[in-house]
Amino acid sequence: MTIEKALVVGTGLIGTSVALALREKGVAVFLSDVDTEAARLAQVLGAGREWAGEGVDLAVIAVPPHLVGDRLADLQKQGAARVYTDVASVKADPIADAERLGCDLASYVPGHPLAGRERSGPAAARAELFSGRPWALCPGPETDAEALRRVRELVSLCGATAVVVGAGEHDSAVALVSHAPHVVASAVAASLASGDDVALGLAGQGLRDVTRIAAGDPLLWRRILSGNTRPVAGVLERIAADLAAAASALRSGDLDEVTDLLRRGVDGHGRIPGQRGGSLPGRNPAGSPGR
Amino acid sequence: MTIEKALVVGTGLIGTSVALALREKGVAVFLSDVDTEAARLAQVLGAGREWAGEGVDLAVIAVPPHLVGDRLADLQKQGAARVYTDVASVKADPIADAERLGCDLASYVPGHPLAGRERSGPAAARAELFSGRPWALCPGPETDAEALRRVRELVSLCGATAVVVGAGEHDSAVALVSHAPHVVASAVAASLASGDDVALGLAGQGLRDVTRIAAGDPLLWRRILSGNTRPVAGVLERIAADLAAAASALRSGDLDEVTDLLRRGVDGHGRIPGQRGGSLPGRNPAGSPGR
C-alpha cells in the first residue's frame, strides 16, 4: 500500500465518506474544513483527526467545484501532499481553474465518484457509499503516471471502479446520465404542486422513483449545474422537445408518435449497464406507477 | 365474507395478481381470458380454475381500458355476477363506453389499483402486488351501495386501501402522478441513445430510478395514454415548458431560474405521501446520480 496517510479537505457527504472508507482500510486520515462544526462532526464519527499541516501521500479535495482550483493551489503551496485529487462532479472548469492558478498539474488527478445521497453533510456519510460505483478519473497529458496509480489505489480502497475519461467527455457524459436527469426529476416533482391531496394520494412507487433525486439540495445542485451549463442545456432541450412533441401528438390523437417515444425509451433504458428489464434485488417489486 | 366466488376476466399481470390474492384469502376464483395460453398459465400458477359460466359474487374485469365496456356488457348479458368492477388505469372512457352500451351501472363499480410492474403477463403476477397500495374506486350516482361495499371488500382482501374519487378527478390525478411521469421517464431514457458506452458506464442509481418505469410495455402504455390524452398532454406541456426554460436559463448563465425550479422540485417531492426526505427502507443508500 502506498497510501499510508491521507488528507481530506472538505468534510461534507463525499469527503467524510472517503475518509471513513480509508479509515476502514487502516489509512491514517487527516481532516480539514473551513466549517469547523462539520470538521468536528466528521472527527466524532471516526473519519479521522484534525489536520495540523502534516505531510500526506494523498490529498482528496472534496469542496464545491468552483473552489477546487483555489484549494489545490493553497495545498500545493504548502507542499501538503505528494498527489492530489478532487471529487467535483464537473471536471473541465476545475482543471481550467487549476491551470489558470499555475497549479502543478503533474501531481493532480481530477476525479469524480459517481455516488451520492439526497442528504448532505458528514452525518449522512458512510464508508460503503462508493462500493461498486464508477469513479471517473480525468488525467491530462501532464499527469504523472505515479500520481494516477496512487489515485487508482484510492478508488480501489473505496471499493469503486475507476473509469478513465477525458474531462470534456466526462462533463458531457454526466450531463446526460446525471445532471439533466436531475433537472427533469425536479420538473416532474415541481408539477405536483398543481395536484390536490387526493391526486397525491394515488402516487405509486413509479412516481417516487422518478422524483427521488429531486429531493437533493438546490444550492449544491445549482453549483454543479453552473459548472456544466451547455452540455446540460443541450440534453434538456432534446428532452423538452420530445415531451412537447408527445403532448402535441396526444392532443391530436396521433398515438404513433407517442408510442415511438415509449419504444425509444425502452431501448435507451436497456443501454444502462446492469439493467435486466426488471426490478433490482431488494427493491420494491411493485413497480410501474399506474398499472 | 360476502365474496365467496369471484371471476377474473383477463389473466394478465393485474388480473392474475388479484386472483392470487383472493385465492390466498380462500375465495373460489374462476379465470377467463381470450388468450387461452395466458389463462392456462394463470391456472398452473394456482390463480384459480377455468370459468365455465358459473355465477359469482364479483367479476373483476382486468382487460385493456378500451375493452372494459364490451366485456362488462357481455358479462351482464350472461348474468355472470352480482357485482362488477374493472382495474383499468383510466376511468372516464370505460364508464362512457358502459353507458353507451346500455350496461347496468348499479352493479358496476369502476376501479383502478395503483400498482404494477415493468413486466406484464401472468408469470409476473404476485398475490402481494397490491399490498399497502391505493386502489381508486369511482362509483357514480347510479352505483348501488351494496355493490360498492363488495368492491371495497375486494380491495381489502387484496391488502390495498380504497380511495373513492370521481372518474374525471381520477383521470386528471393519474395523468399527474403516473401517466405523464411515465412519458417523462421514457424521454430521459430515450435521450441516452445519444450517449456512448463510456457515458452510460457513469450511470448511477439516480438515472436507474428516474428511468426504471421506462422499461414498461410500449403497447400497454399506448392504450393507457390513448384513454387519457388531454390530461396527460396538459401535464407534459407544463414540464416541457419548465425544462425548455431551464435550458435557456442555463445557456444564458441565469442560475436563479434553474435554482427556483430545483426548489419547486424539493417542495413538490415533499408532497408525495410517505416521503421522508431520504431513502426508503431497504433501498440502495447511494442515492443521487452525480455526487
TrEMBL record, chains A, B:
Any Gene Ontology biological process: tyrosine biosynthetic process
Gene3D superfamilies, per the entry: 6-phosphogluconate dehydrogenase C-terminal like domain, NAD(P)-binding Rossmann-like Domain
GO molecular function, one term: prephenate dehydrogenase (NADP+) activity
Keywords for this protein: Oxidoreductase
Keyword ATP-binding assigned: no
Ranges where the Prephenate/arogenate dehydrogenase domain occurs: 4-280
Region (Disordered): 266-291
Superkingdom of the source species: Bacteria
Protein family per UniProt: Belongs to the prephenate/arogenate dehydrogenase family.
The name this protein goes by in its record: Prephenate dehydrogenase/arogenate dehydrogenase family protein
